[in-house]
Amino acid sequence: MFRRNGRKGNYAYTVARVKAKKSLLMGEEDYSKMMMMTVPEISRYISEIGYGKEMADLAGRMSGLALLEHATYLNMAKVFSSILSSSTGELYGMVSAYLVKWDIWNLKVILRGKSYGLDAEGIREDLVPAGSLSAESLDRLIALETDDDIIANFGKMARVNFPADVLSAYKASGNLGDIEDFLDKMHYEKLIQSIDPSSRPSRLFLDYIREEVDIKNFETIFKLKAEGIIGEQVMKYIIPGGKKIDGRQLTLFANAENAESLISDISQLDFYENIKDALESNNLRDMVSGLKRYEMQKAKKFSHLYPLSVIPVIDYMIHKESEVRNIRLIARGTESGLDRDVIKGLLVI
Amino acid sequence: MAIEGDVGSGLIAIGAGLAVGLTGLGAGMAEKDVGAAAVGAITEDPTIFGKAMIFMVLPETIVIFGLVIAIMGIFVM
């Protein structure tokens, strides 16, 4: 009854903070307004509703779309870092394990940026220093010359041991995919391991993550199918640890030539309703958006089920990430003259 | 040290002490989470200080019930 130490984490404090933050996130009407604006107008609009500090800080160095994109990512990184610093105990452990995905994202951005010959500023625009590596650490990685040095230093900083076979496969093919696949698999493996399933909220979080793995695998299979890749080759990209889609189903999905023959199996999955139309019209873009929407709905539902758990925190993070993605999407779409209906279809609200 | 009074009065005093003490513990446990959430909410939005304060003191009502029982025990019974 009196076991009230800090080991369990300050759920009430952190959840109250994220709920307050969530109430300030943009709604559908904000996106509708932004779709009628030009990029400078969007920049001004978002400056007034929470992104002002980052926009002002970067305004001296950047302008236009670059300023907007960098400021939104910087804001997201600051918000996530502040959530992490305000949490304690097992909550801190779970949030930090979840945020490792941004370390992986940052390494991918740096390696890809380098391979495309981007300068340091160009790479920095897409970085989200919300994980365990600070902006300074990431700057040190950007300053390194070769990919080998970057990977080795990242391994030391983020305590990741790259297996020799992954490194040798990367060196032989020069394909960053080998490194990226290893990192994604490692992230989910570590995340699943970090969750202690002894309490109901933790078990719910574990279920949520395992369903996220299912969605990622499903997305991978259909993305590769759209490129004409099927069969055994697909299976090496599969992340282990899913909840609803077992090995037999994964093999079945991977081996099928098209989605039509799989309808009876796919219709058993929880997210079928969200992707039904996209599957019928064979529209990969809508399917990905549908899966994102399902993830957000699920996080929202879970957060109401257990308010004093890590799930409301993750729910907020997913919504914040979606907000930033939507702002960037509208700005990029407007800049490139994309039709408003197309932009609207791509938004995840 | 000599103990004055009868056994009945002593039991009433123990009951009164338990009524206040246990309700105090209950209120404290409830306020732990309410207070933490209130401080978290105020950090994000300082304008809700008044509302947060009201929620913060709500569990105190339990102690008042305990106190009423204790007073009834001592002065009415």
Describe the fold and architecture.
The complex is a heterodimer of chains A (about 350) and B (about 80). With about 350 residues, chain A is mainly alpha-helical. Chain A has helices spanning about 10-25, 30-35, 40-60, 65-85, 90-115, 120-125, 135-145, 145-155, 165-175, 175-195, 200-225, 230-235, 245-255, 265, 270-280, 285-305, 310-335, 340-345. The termini of chain A are far apart. The model of chain A is unreliable at about 1-5 (pLDDT under 50). By secondary structure, chain B is mostly helical. Chain B has a single domain (about 10-75), classed as F1FO ATP Synthase. Chain B contains three helices and no strands. Chain B has helices spanning about 5-45, 50-55, 60-75. Chain B starts with 6 loop residues before the first helix and ends with a helix. The model of chain B has no long low-confidence stretch (mean pLDDT about 90). The interface between A and B is medium-sized, with 13 and 13 residues.
Spell out the blueprint of helices and strands:
The complex is a heterodimer of chains A (349) and B (77).
Chain A: H1 11-23, H2 28-35, H3 39-58, H4 64-86, H5 89-115, H6 120-124, H7 135-143, H8 147-157, H9 164-173, H10 177-194, H11 200-226, H12 232-235, H13 247-255, H14 263-266, H15 272-280, H16 284-305, H17 311-335, H18 340-346
Chain B: H1 7-44, H2 49-57, H3 60-76
Helix pairs in contact in B: 1-2, 1-3
